[in-house]
Batch of 2 targets.
Target 1
Amino acid sequence: MGAFPRHPKYLGLNTPQSEEYTVGDLAVDGVIPADVEGVFFRAVPNPAYPPFLEDSAAFLSADGMIGAIRFAGGKASIDLRWVQTARHRAETAAGRALFGKYRNPFTDRPEARGVDRTVANTTPVWHAGRLLMCKEDGRPYRIDPRTLETLGSFDFDGALKSETMTAHVRVDPGTGELFFYGYEASGLASKTVAYCVVGADGKLKSEQWFDAPYCAMMHDFTITERYALFPIYPTTCELDRLEAGGDHWIHHQDMDSWLGIMPRYGDVSELRWFKGPKGVSCYHMMNAWEDERGLVHFDQCLSDSNAFPFIRQASGIALQQWELNGRLARWTIDPKGTDDTVVETVIGPPGDFPVIPAARQGRPYDHAWMLTMNPDRRGPPVFGGPVDAMFDLLLRLDMAGGPPQALALDPGMCFNEPVHVPAREAGHEGWLVTVVDRQTGPESFEHECWIVDAGKIAAGPVARVGIPRRLRPQVHGWWVSARQLEGAA
Ligand code: V55
Ligand code: FE
């Protein structure tokens, strides 16, 4: 590995850490609950080679690594491996970076031509006994869940026509179906969205294409028991800008947002578009559900502009991170009514990485968790990740409006996105498993995996697992129980 620029993108917690490793019998402080038996898979973007041109969005196109923190019989181990994408293999063969800016192939070196550009760095998705590493700009890579060996690009055995599959999928807890979509599905800067349903048997049952109102960054979507919801926020891509070597995304404060809704087993011709506020943006969505009156409620981590500072900068938007006006927002619509605008209610604080129990996906839910910034922190947050600051407060929200519970970290510490592990005991809310980073010097960090009682987060971790190696900031994770793993395809 060559030298990376001395830039915050590559320093501190963001220091490239490209070593693969396996470490067993990790030190455990406390007792790992019997429910926590399985694997916490983590997607970790990690640039393997120094860039050959300046790219403010470089974090998003760092090569995917997959981490697995395995829990068995009260013990824990960790594995970390590269996803052997075609792109990573081509760069490894060349011994240097070949791919230019984030999602702009016009900036690549000639040797990169024709090579799949995706980095598979965003979400490990488990479905029908398969583990997929997903990234919204391409098709996923399939990974062996036991060895973390990369098995190749995955297209549902030749069935998928879309060039892309999102990193945010929804699994229906009743039917076991996987719902997903791909955007820019028919090529760079296209408005084409592919809406797909995969059966519990892992077969692609349906793929339908429709046009979004404009080519937008569609990072996440939601389902309810009867509907599929496609939110569109005005962060857009234009081909001529890419051809000129520019940025993939520009955010527009003066453009409308939209919420598309259709029966989830219906035809895309039934899609109905509700208008949302201008200029807003959301990366992660908590849930959507129908009430007894037939209204659809869609709960999301919304902000008044794009949350990524490099996208605002490229768009000439002079808002600082603390000026974003974020909130957990509920958009309510009547899919059968005559009104065609969303009604927004603020139901929670600013923050991101919303988590719900998998069993409540698409259904009314009592409680949820998310990360945010501690308003009472003394000192700066830990620098790192794509928005330059890491979260340091874990919240449990009572969706009926009761008081939230909080777990605050000491200064110099931060959370990565937790996964939820259900409990066998009825009435127990289960466990949250999350990596906590602690800064111990200008360039030194320690990492632990914490297990927290999901209903009593304020009590702190019941177990802390020491990770004796460096970890880069994670994007998303996925919990796969030991029983699910036994059924691996
Ligand atoms: C996000 C992350 C991405 C990406 C687009 O969290 C959006 C938001 C790690 O890659 O490509
Ligand atoms: Fe995401």
Target 2
Amino acid sequence: MLINKIEDVRNQVKEWRKEGLSVGLVPTMGALHEGHLSLIKKAKEACDRVVVSVFVNPIQFGPSEDFDKYPRTLEADTKLCDGEGVDVVFAPTPNEMYGGGRLSNDTLTYVCPPFFYVNKLCGKSRVGHFDGVCTVVLKLFNIVQPDFGFFGQKDAQQVIVIKKMVKDLNVPIEIVQCPIVREESGLALSSRNKYLTEQGKIDALVLSKILNNIKVCYNKGITDVSALKETVYSFLTDKHELEYIEILNRETLEEEKNANKNSIALIACRVEGVRLIDNIYLGE
Ligand code: PAF
């Protein structure tokens, strides 16, 4: 069932609650792929009813980012959700979510995650991005009031920031993190892969190759983070614009001198101008 209005999704969830049913929310920006479907499958296993939100959230995009060209494929998304037995696809308009006013923190209440969590990795180049993410996610949580929220490990910093928000603001929702889904080639699935040409997809394999190589080196006993990070340069060509490579604590995003079983290696790199991210746990 496709619902666009906040009031309608609230009423539907209220009905389910009366029947004592548990509810899972899978927040998405649409352009659904197998990665999203894996979140939906997990939600279906864990919950009696599943809501998938499809909303390209304007306030998490910077002024020079791809908000206007971000793929919008609601009809196909709804079909995919129907195929997975999703109970409600909640696809509000920006006006429904934010009203008609100017979208800025002069006029809207924002949820701003702590600087320590966002002054690095994606938050460093995408200033304000996680304010937009936390604001919309908390709004979706308040609208749907699910028991569980499902998020993908590919956006590792996002999951950590959302978990922190949920803990700090006592939001009564359990966050479930699901593993990265990859193409057979190793490329992590992303809605932004749609922007890549066939050659671009091949060039983009550098991200998973770099991460796998770091893990191989770690498994061989190299733990010095600087030495592990140095290994990336032999993979990069003029097709790649590296934004960051970091090895941090996988729960807290703290820097460590030596990698260990709790470390995560994270990369952001542009290929054909498309900003791609990926990560790998070293201890698994
Ligand atoms: O990961 C995403 O697709 C978005 O950041 C989210 C969580 C749906 C919030 O808009």
